[in-house]
Amino acid sequence: MEETKRNLADVVVERIERLIVDGVLKEGQALPSERRLTEKLGVSRTALREGLKVLRARGLIETSQGKGSIVANLTVEPAQTPMMHLLSSQPRTLYDLLEVREMIEAESARLAALRGTAADHLLIKRRYEAMLAADSEDTDASTHARLDHAFHLAICEASHNPVLVHTLSFLNDLMLSSVFASVNNLYHREPHKRVIDRQHARLYNAVTGQLPEQARRAASQHIRSVRDGFSEIEQEEQRLVRSTLRLEGWS
């Protein structure tokens, strides 16, 4: 009897770990109630509690009195390392980050076009439409950035590659910084904004149209275009600084 209880607890651990890895249960998200979990997993309340105890010991969930269990912040320690601080604080690393984004997002877009389900397409469609709707509203740059990032993350999740998804999630703060920079520096420039809109449309159509190579190219071209836009802005600023210094007699 004791052996059976342990086996059922192992089932609970395995199923919930899989839901976390697959991104169905996300960091900070509350687990369903004990009643719902026992129904969904087909185990007794005793076995469920044993399984949750193991998950708590592994640091995967946190439980508080009266509030139930939530998925723990799985990347809190690495995100606070000195290297992560340097990467987020040095402007020059933005270009390195965009190279990483291009590699991750180009491949995830290709896989999303190959593997995405109807449910994935619906989620991507919702993120895309939310991003478009923000254009017709008085939306601040930070919200624009988060909507932009959510669209790209939905595509990554449709790749059904947990490692890709968790790599992107691990870099979430840095990625969001780069997207915010894109929104802040490019969105208010009408020619750049039109280019970004067209690229997002191409990416959306290729992924939901299940065209893997077109999706890969669209994602890659989008990130390269953003990088080129930053470079152009940077050069403009440098020319402005030089001409201002000459005007003020510093040359």
From TrEMBL:
Keyword field contains DNA-binding: yes
Keywords noted in UniProt: DNA-binding, Transcription, Transcription regulation
Keyword flag Transcription regulation: yes
Domain of life: Bacteria
Span of domain HTH gntR-type: 6-74
GO molecular function: DNA binding; DNA-binding transcription factor activity
Pfam families: FCD, GntR
NCBIfam families reported for this sequence: PRK09990.1
Protein known as: DNA-binding transcriptional regulator GlcC
Organism annotation: Caballeronia concitans
Phylogenetic lineage: Bacteria, Pseudomonadati, Pseudomonadota, Betaproteobacteria, Burkholderiales
